[in-house]
Structures are given as structure tokens and as C-alpha cells.
Amino acid sequence: MARRRALITGITGQDGSYLADILLGKGYDVHGIIRRSSTFNTSRLNRSRLDQQESGKNLTLHFSDLAEDGQLTNLVYNLEPQEIYHLGAQSHVKVSFEIPAYTGDVTGVATTRVLEAVRRSGIKARFYQASSSEMFGAAKPPQNEDTPFHPASPYGAAKVHAYWITRIYREAYGMFASNGILFNHESPRRGETFVTRKITLAVAAIVKGVQHHLHLGNLDARRDWGYAPEYVEGIWRVVQHRSAGDFVIGTGETHSVREFAAEAFAYVGLDWKDYVRTDRIHLRPLEVHDLRADARKAKRILRWRPRIAFRDLVHIMVDADLEAAGLPCPGLGKAAAIAACGRWWE
User: Fold this and answer.
1) For this structure, is 18 an active site residue?
2) How do the domains of the chain map onto residue ranges?
3) Which member of 18, 85, 128, 155 is catalytic?
């Protein structure tokens, strides 16, 4: 029986690397698109997967750029993937205020490029668009598939464009094109500039004695935080569903940045108030105050539900950064991750 072939944009990111692991574990041939400047980030694709790439088995990386459509169209046409997961983007919200035009292009317009490549090639691929809770912005929580969008950043606005162009191609051309509206999801593979990872890295550095304080912005911002490997399983389920659609994926709980920091420091026996400083330089021009998912549709239709609780998520990330720093860790997060998701512990 022929292997299913999947194409992933943004494969070197947190979600892309976890998705590659999932698909390879399910016997897929996986193809990933990377920019030449992303080659140093392939560390998220673990050693065994890179070994497979080098031996020409199941994972192949291709150079391309979401800002250009020529090579992208050629890849789609030549590979003829059955499934396309479009995860590539400029995904940092604060950075999107600094480079709004670039963010609009590679986070928003690039989705049109991928969809048009699929349409022109004539293949019958199932397409997934990585939409974001940042599209809701100032909308009152909880937010679900029917909540009007009210983005509060260039990133959120770009994701709204990508969401609607995906729906337009689905309705105009009959394409299998789905949106997964994922709320915040974290892991040890989260980028180091994102607030959750910034906190857990600082905890490890402070325990090691090489850092003394952590500077953060808005401590009152509330987010619906979940465990990335579980959310990526949700992405796969969206694509396997019998018909295309739009699905919110989240836990239904919110916690503030302050709560995340307090739990991370308490896990190693420290009081966060002794180490955390607030700094206006880390504030966004517009703040999103409260995002909370109403994921009843995904639970009912996709049979998807989160298993890792907020506290366990924090512990998982602190454990991983303590281990990476060569320090002993309590291991409670590691145990929770193994119990819930087994193979995803780092």
C-alpha cells in the first residue's frame, strides 16, 4: 500500500516539528518547506528524523520561500501531496508591529499563494490553514467558530486574511480547505522569544546562577494555554475529517502571565516576586487581554480533547529547560507528559 504524502510549510517550527513526528509515526512520506535562513532551526526535527532525511527514507526538506510563488507551485505540482499543512508564518505578535508589511505578506498573502498552487496543479489535496486565536483579539471570551474577529495586531489581521481566503477557496472551488483556530499552545520546543519559554528559560538560568531577574510586559494578559503535541494531534484530526470546516482548539481555561510565572518559579521553590520585573519595552501597542476557547465543536466532531492541565504544562517546560541547563529537575512535568502523550517528552 502506497504511503500517504504530506507537505508541511513551517516544518522547523514548534508545530511543524511535532506534526512531522506524528505523520512519520503514522507511516507518511513527509516533505517540509524551509527557507535557507531556517536551516539552523532544524534542531526541532529530532535526530532520528534527520537521520531518515539523510538516508532518503521518509523525510525530505525542500528550499522555498512563502514570499514567492514560483518554486512553491513547482513543489506542489511535482510532489502531488495528499495533505498540505500550511503552518509557515511570521508568528510573533509583538514583532508583527515592527515588520507589519512583511507579516501581512508571509502570514496572510502567502496562504493565497499555497492555495493557488494547489488549484492550478489540479491535485485533490486536503489543505489545512493554521489560524490563530489572535484573530479574536478584543472579542469577548469565550470565543468559538461563530465569534466575530476583532484582531489587535498586524499578525492577527494577517491571520484573518488567511482564514477568509481559505474559506473562499473552499466555497468557490470546492477544495478541501480547513481552518484550525488554535489557542496558545506551548512546549519545550516553543521559541525562546515567546513569553512562556522566556519564563521557563529564566527559571533555569536563575537556578543555575547565571541570571538574576526576568523582565516581562503585561502580567495581567490572560491566555488559554495548552500542550502543543496534543494540539498538533488535533490538526491531524481536522484534516482526516470527512468534510472540510473550521475548528477552534483550546482548553477552555485561562491563566494570566502572572500565574504562569508564579507556577514556574514555585516549582523550583522560588517566589516569582523576587525575580520578575515589569518593563514597558515589552508591552504591545495594543494589548489582547483575554482569550478563552469554546472548543465544543472539536470535542464533539473530532473527538479531540486536551489531557495536559495548565500546571502540568508549566512543569513540563521547566523540567525540560532545567535538564537542558544540566540541572536536576523535579520531574513532575516529565511524568505527566509521558503519562498523557508518551513519545512527546523531550
Assistant:
1) no
2) 5-185+225-249, 190-224+253-289+309-344
3) 155
